[in-house]
Structure formats: C-alpha cells, structure tokens
Amino acid sequence: MLISKEDALKLAGSGATSVAPDLVKVVKVGADGKEQQPGLTDSFIERFGGADEERDYVGAAQTICLNALAVRAKSRGELAAQLKRRGIPLDVANEVLDRLERSKLINDLDFARAWSKSRLSSKKISKRVLAQELRRKEVADDLIAIALDEISSDDEYEAALQLGERKARSLQNYAEDVRERRITSALARKGYNYGIISRVLKEVC
After folding, report:
1. Are residues 171 and 138 in the same domain?
2. Count of other CB atoms within 10 angstroms of residue 130
3. Predicted pLDDT of residue 131
4. Torsional sign, CA 75, 81, 86, 92
5. Residue-range definition of the domain harbouring residue 44
6. Are strands 39-40 and 24-25 parallel, antiparallel or unpaired?
C-alpha cells in the first residue's frame, strides 16, 4: 500500500509502530541537539516509490511515445490519446509531441501517406474508407486529402479488381447470381462505389 511522505512523517513523529524503523530517520539540528521533524530514509523512497514526489511527466511522456513509435508509425492524435490514457497532463503532452514533430519522429502527412498505401495494398480498402480510418486517428482533413490525392483512380480500381478476383475464385462452385451478389457485398464493405463495383463484376463474372 502506498503512503505519502507526510503520512509517514506524522506516524514516525508520533511513535506509531505502523512505519518500520528502517523507513524513517530522526534529523537533529542546532547546538541544543533538539529533535526536529523526522525525515525519510532511502528505504522509504525505494519501497514506496516516493508516492508524493514530483513526477517526471516529460520523461514519462517521451518514453511512452518512443515505445509506441517503436512498434509502428503513429499519428500525433494517436499518441496524444495514449498519453491522456496514461495520465500525462495536456500541457506536458503537447510539449513532448511538439518536440517529436520538430525532430521528425512524428509527421501526420507522412503517416497518412504510408497508412493509405499500405492499407490499399494489403486490405484493398477504398479511398473513402481510408479517409474514415485516418479521421479516427485524428489526422487533419487537409493532410488526408493530400495523401489520398496521391492514390490514382487506376490504383483504387486495381485494388478492387484484385479483391474481386480473389473472391470470385472462392465462389467458383456457386451460381452466377450468387457470385455477383457476394462479390458486390465484399466490395461494398470495403467502401467501393457502384461504378467501380460494376467494372469489377464485368471482369470477374
């Protein structure tokens, strides 16, 4: 159980046995040798972690962010949310995030570009759904627009076609109307519009 420095000192001063003797020390000052308020030994700090000591929020925030970035690139919004969950004050979080931006360790435009290209390639997700995902990660709309403008209509169609072909291969033993319906559903869930879906169906059915 954590106890504060003040509580420990009060208990020690009262002679209570609740605080182990190795956790408190008596400080004597003055020529008359009178005992002043007891102090704390290193054992207290080590055992109870200095519960009321001023926390190094900046250092903690930096560690949280760097550990998160070591796993994968993240947006500033993602890191801000993580710092909030970990109890980092808003002003400290903003200070650390600003520092990471200046150091180029976080860059929301680069993040949006990399996220979009990766998800389009691996998950065959439409630009509309990519925009939704990036907004959930609190990337600004103007940066999302820049990143998605770099994905051409042909790139988006090619991703949809690959998804349609993969789905069609798994439905070879089904009737044509069933194949069309299921391929249409699969493409729609990825956010593709009717125009792209129609083009894909003409190719794979």
Report:
1. no
2. 25
3. 98
4. positive
5. 5-48
6. antiparallel
User: Cα torsion for 111, 117, 121, 123, to the nearest 10°?
Assistant: 50
In 22-133, the DSSP E strands lie at 24-25, 39-40
Question: Which two structure tokens, joined as six digits, stand for 31?
Answer: 């020529």
Q: Which of 19, 27, 26, 25 is nearest to 47 (CA)?
A: 19
Domain count, the chain: 4
Asked if 63 and 82 touch (Cβ cutoff 8 Å), the reply is: no
| C-beta separation of 190 from 163 below 8 A | yes
In angstroms, the CA 126 to CA 144 distance is: 13
Mark whether 28 and 16 lie in a shared domain: yes
Same domain, 167 and 198: yes
pTM of the predicted model as reported, rounded to 2 decimal places:
0.71
Whether 145 and 181 share a structural domain:
no
Please report which helix (H) or strand (E) contains residue 130, including its range.
helix 127-136
Token pair in block for residue 167: 């789905």
73-93 confidence digits (pLDDT tens)? 999 999 999 999 999 999 999
pLDDT in tens, 99-110: 999 999 999 999
Give the E-state strand segments of 2-62 in sequence order: 24-25, 39-40
101 in the same domain as 74: yes
| Token couple for 86 | 């970990």
